[in-house]
Write a structure and sequence with these properties.
The protein is built from two helices and four strands; from the N terminus they run βαβββα. With 71 residues, the chain is an alpha+beta fold. It has one domain (2-70): Glutaredoxin, CATH 3.40.30.10.
């Protein structure tokens, strides 16, 4: 899984905390991007945080990302 975060974005702090708790249970690559970088190809506006799953699907809800990383 790959987690995209940006400095200064409020939703990134909880997902980083969840990623820290998931260490050892799931492999998560954390990438820092700019707030204007478009990570999800089908969204018209930039959105972070985003979790790209191994299947290629994207989660861009902070709550959904935190739940996914706690599995």
């Amino acid at each position: 899984m790959r987690l995209f975060v940006s400095e200064g974005v409020p939703g990134c702090l909880p997902v980083l905390a969840a990623a820290g708790r998931a260490r050892g249970r799931a492999e998560v690559l954390i990438s820092t991007v700019g707030p204007e970088d478009c990570v999800v190809p089908f969204l018209t506006r930039p959105k972070v945080p985003v979790l790209q799953l191994d299947s290629g699907n994207y989660l861009f809800s902070t709550n959904a990302i935190c739940r996914r990383q706690n599995l």
